[in-house]
Model the fold of this input.
Amino acid sequence: MIAGNLKSVRQRIARSCERALRPAEDVKLVCVTKGSSIEEIKEVLDAGAGILGENRVQEAILKYNAIGKRPEWHLVGHLQTNKARDAVKIFSLIHSVDSLRIAEEIDRQAKRVGKVQDLLVEVNVSGSITKFGIRDDEIFDILKRLSLYCNINIKGFMTIAPEAQDPEFARPYFIKLRQLRDEANSMLNTQYSILSMGMSGDFEIAIEEGSNMVRIGRAIFRG
Ligand SMILES: *Cc1c(COP(=O)(O)O)cnc(C)c1O
Done:
């Protein structure tokens, strides 16, 4: 089942890329394994998954210990400061940096282990009070401050669109994140490239609007 689901998700990604006139290799798939068992993770790895995404550090550590460093682990969920020490040990990319304070702590912990931690800044493009993420009117100020830290490396941006029945509802938020990245690159003279946007319910729209990293759980493991 999981192998079949993965295949069909990959086909849907490829078709969205075609519609957007982009090569399919443009879009990286993060298989979100939160709530999935070790058996299920082994199944998705056997089927060729390249990146695993977890949203809790403790759960990720247990799985990492069972499965190993390969292929690649990403943190997609909110990170608390007291978990940063563990997070820098196992994740190659942290998608969910949503405050200056957590970025500082990641920098500090990365320095301790002699690493430069790749990360994405999570933006709350919908302005929803229930969501994590930095407000878009604060983002430039925060990016400037983050550029001063030596043990973190900002690769781009992440967002979670508001949940809706109709995935079209998410489109303006994805457009907003892409514009924000392009604006940042031109104003701050940076080369932020990653746009982590799109989940099971809305990844096709996200790809049409420029996503190059989709985070998919249910469509693979519960589809
Ligand atoms: C759970 C989760 C996903 C995957 O969501 P699905 O709807 O299961 O595809 C993606 N990103 C984050 C931050 C998540 O917590």
